[in-house]
Design brief:
Blueprint: E1 3-9, H1 16-19, E2 29-35, H2 48-55, E3 60-64, H3 65-73, E4 78-87, E5 94-97, E6 112-115, H4 121-134, E7 142-145, E8 161-163, H5 170-175, E9 181-183, E10 198-200, H6 205-216, E11 221-228, H7 229-234, H8 238-255, H9 268-279, H10 292-304, H11 314-317
Parallel strand pairs: 1-2, 1-3, 6-7, 6-9, 7-8
Antiparallel strand pairs: 3-11, 4-11, 5-9, 5-10
């Protein structure tokens, strides 16, 4: 019998081998790979996380780390494997009006900061980093969100969350003074237009990121690979098979940069080499041991922000077959 599965992922370079067939499904399986965006419409649609958490639409899904923690905390039947296909530092994704008079993180206190949603993984990370890296009390900032939350929660006492409404143009909101700053993984082009175009809060975000990596030793996780819990209970060995498939895809994607003209960027190969020199070769490692510090620190951020009731252990979060990885 052939096990037929669906897998929804974004179109990153490390996923290209799934779309061009370079990486095949494990023996005895057929996997229909869907290109589903989250806030951007891709070939097979958008709202990947909502479609997974609300409808269980996919068997395997690239999924928000913060929403996964919240789902497990509330007993939703999802289970992850320790594969982390999206990672971001927060420092380079803080934007402020060029004339806002905000020159350092502490000057965000009392201001209105736009977010995709309060529980978006980058939002959680940025608030945690404000507190731990820069000593900024994130509770004293007004958080202005554009989208409904994927998992319901009660805001921490004293924290103000304002809903700007779906479809808000963050660039226009910043220009018109509706918000003072923005933290967003996909900044709109309008952010840099108009009489007062936005600028990054940190003049040298690369230096901030290097300091972060030196301090904590990891590239912060944004997404995890989640699966339907019922599927893994029926096929427990599937977890390691899918992990291995993602590892093969990542290895192939790294080989793309052997060709200096593979990327649209004229200096693509040089940028790849510079990235390796700056950050090392292990930024994208899968497995629990290599990512334990990252996951535990993020869980503490979520607990501080009262998005989860307690810090879980790995046995509650990841498929049993993967706990030794």
């Amino acid at each position: 019998m052939v096990l037929r599965l669906t897998m929804a992922v974004d179109r990153y370079d490390r996923h290209f081998p799934f779309f061009d067939g370079t990486v095949s499904a494990p023996h005895g399986m057929e996997i229909r790979v869907l290109q589903v965006g989250q806030t951007v419409v891709l070939r097979d649609g958008e709202f990947r996380h909502e479609r997974m958490i609300r409808d269980g639409e996919f068997d395997i899904c690239e999924f928000s780390l913060s929403s996964y923690f919240m789902a497990r905390d509330r007993g939703i039947d999802l289970m992850a494997i320790p594969v982390f296909p999206r990672r971001l530092f927060s420092a380079g994704l803080f934007y402020v009006r060029s004339d806002a008079g905000i020159e350092k993180p502490s000057e965000l206190v009392g201001r209105r900061v736009g977010l995709n949603s309060f529980q978006t993984t980058l939002s959680v990370l940025a608030r945690g980093d404000l507190a731990s890296q820069y000593g900024v009390p994130w509770e004293h900032i007004t958080w202005c969100v554009a989208n409904d939350e994927k998992v319901a929660f009660q805001a921490k006492r004293g924290v103000e969350i304002r809903n700007l409404g779906a479809g808000v143009d963050f660039g226009l909101a910043l220009q018109q003074g509706e918000i003072d700053a923005l933290i967003h993984p996909h900044p709109p082009p309008s952010l840099f237009a108009g009489p007062s175009p936005a600028r990054r809060l940190f003049a040298d975000p690369a230096a901030e990121e290097a300091t972060y990596l030196e301090t904590h030793g990891y590239f912060p996780i944004m997404h995890v690979v989640a699966m339907r819990g019922s599927l893994l209970r029926e096929f427990p060995n599937l977890a390691l098979d899918i992990m291995e498939m993602f590892e093969r895809a990542r290895g192939i994607s790294e080989s793309y940069y052997d060709d200096p003209n593979w990327s649209l960027l004229a200096g693509g190969r040089r940028y790849f080499e510079a990235d390796r020199r700056s950050y090392g070769e292990n930024l994208w490692r899968s497995g629990l041991q290599a990512n334990a510090r990252n996951l535990k620190r993020f869980a503490c951020y979520m607990l501080d922000q009262e998005l989860i009731s307690r810090v879980p252990d790995f046995g509650e979060l990841f498929a049993p077959a993967t706990l030794a990885t």
